[in-house]
Amino acid sequence: MDLNELKQAVIAGDMAGARNLTQKAIEAGIDPGTILNEALVAGMDVVGELFKANEIYVPEVLLSAKSMQQGMQLLKPLLVKGGIEPRGKVVVGTVRGDLHDIGKNLVAMMLEGAGFEIIDLGNDVAPESFVEAAAQSEASIIGMSALLTTTMYVMKETIDLLKAHGLDGKVKTMVGGAPVTQAFADEIGADGYGDDAASAVDLAKRFVGLA
Ligand code: B1M
Questions:
Q1: Burial readout 95-122 (b: 16 or more C-beta within 10 A, e: otherwise)
Q2: 12 C-alpha to center of ligand 1: Å?
Q3: Beta-sheet strands, E only, within the chain
Q4: What is the pTM of this model?
């Protein structure tokens, strides 16, 4: 079976196709790690590049991410069984007081597509919850999203709390969202800033030494 067909289904945002072709690949006896990396993740890598280049937009990215997730659902139990380690754990959430979660969901989906395990705390997430979740799950990255100028400072509170728990350095912090900039990320002591979901993936890969 040609894995390129599955990769193309992810790029095209063909949810049913991605599910059926993943099932076929599993039935054809292809190694689950190969299906994940050479079809699903490879497809999302192309989507990330197209998105970064403004050749496709949010609706297409969401469809591709959902297609990838259709395949992931079938692969997840096999991957766990096969003992294939995810690339790292990332705790994600939109900060306290902020209900905007479309961008955060997109970032989470793209990270999952790139092979990271996601602990999604949802929206309106307090600094204590981010830090607690990272400590409990031994995550290597906290990713925070904020869409309001009134909530973006909650990111600094989280970073300060992480430092107070002696976890800075051990847990990298990545921030993003419409009002957030690289200068703001530097000002609050974040380890990285993602302008969009694709850059968030690049950053996360760098944090765990994969890029
Ligand atoms: Co609201 N809202 N909203 N809103 N809303 C904005 C953000 C606003 C800019 C609109 C405007 O006035 N022009 C404005 C903020 C102004 C400001 O703070 N300066 C605003 C306001 C004022 C409000 C309310 C206060 C309105 C009111 O009630 N009076 C209210 C606040 C509610 C609250 O959160 N407490 C509110 C409510 C809402 C809705 C609920 C209606 C809805 C949210 C629905 C939802 O998310 N489930 C909503 C929406 C949809 C928007 C706009 C129109 C679109 C946001 C969006 O989803 N964009 C927005 C206007 C705008 O941004 N142009 C607006 C698409 C999304 C894919 O982009 O989230 O930027 P974005 O994510 C990008 C990047 O930023 C980056 O990657 C993503 C993909 O490229 N990124 C990261 C995001 N997080 C990242 C994390 C990373 C890395 C990259 O690392 C971890």
A1: bbebebbebbbbbbbbbbbbbbebbbbe
A2: 26
A3: 89-94, 117-120, 141-145, 172-176, 192-194
A4: 0.83
Q: How many angstroms separate the alpha carbon of residue 100 from the centre of ligand 1?
A: 5
Q: Of 115, 135, 138, 139, give the one whose Cα is nearest residue 211.
A: 115
SS3 category, 149: coil
Instruction: Look at phi and psi of residue 169 and say left if phi exceeds 0, alpha if psi is from -120 to 50, else beta.
Output: left
In tens, the pLDDT along 129-155 reads 999 999 999 999 999 999 999 999 999
> 103 CA distance to ligand 1 centroid (A)?
8
Q: Is the CB of 58 under 6 A from ligand 1?
A: yes
pLDDT score for 83: 53
CA distances from 130 to 20, 90, 133, 190, 193 (A): 36, 11, 5, 14, 17
- Domains delineated in the chain: 3-81 (1.10.1240.10), 89-207 (3.40.50.280)
Residue 95's DSSP bridge partners are 125
